[in-house]
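SAMPLE LOG
Freezer: B-3
Tube label: C17
Construct: single chain, 288 aa
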Amino acid sequence: MTFPFHLPRDQSLSQKFDSIGTGIWHTWTKPSGASLIEIIVCGAGGAGGNGFGAAAGTARGGGGGGGSGAMSRIIVPANLLPDTLYIAPGMGGAGAGGASFVSFMQSTAAAALLITASGGGLGGTGTAFAVGAAGAAGAIIGGAACLYSGLGVFVSIAGQAGVAGGAIAGAAGTAITFGNAGVPVSGGAGGGGSTSADFAGGGIVGGGFCPNISGGLAGGNRGADGFTLELPLTYSGGTGGGASNSIAGGSGGDAALGSGGGGGGAGLTTGGIGGRGGNGLVVVSVVR
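STRUCTURE (predicted):
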């Protein structure tokens, strides 16, 4: 199969940047002899929502999976770029995913940006009345958000939304399919719901180079962390935590880069915590 984001054969001409903290910038220096620069930017993924905890035999919804970040790409003649670019991949973690930026200065203002990509949304928390909602997909970015994107061939693709948690009447968390949003990252799966029985968390249905990944087993087991493959770039969300009627719900799995965390499972008294969203990333590749 073909993959839409090609890196140079000489990997010394490609650099990947991960987040090192909110407001902290990497610097990239243009090498001599560069002809074209390709930059791929992915926003951070959102965390999964928490499962609901209450007494045995009561309605408890599973947490929703977090949404993945959006992806943007630009191919631009090297002679149109300054010698130094400033790069700030978005932060993931316990909330909504942060946007990622490539700028001509240490600023996220549109007037300074070459390219950006938005982060994914936080999955919803389960309650006694409703399942945790799916975290929103990172939104497509228009040219007005990055003034200098017109220097090259620019495209922005929405991320993948997470999925809902398991039903309050008791059900496995919703599974999510990798790859059907056209980006090599994914939202997180949903946590299991419960009334008087145990249910599994939702899993990842594999696609492309991502394998199938099971959710947390019924009975309060933790979901699996996201899958990572560097070439071709493939990063999945976390799977959902299992629900329990007798112990605390299982936590959702943490996401790989750019992807959404799994939702937490419902539990006795304490629901499972949603998995962490993956940090954003930026890949800069040089053609000589």
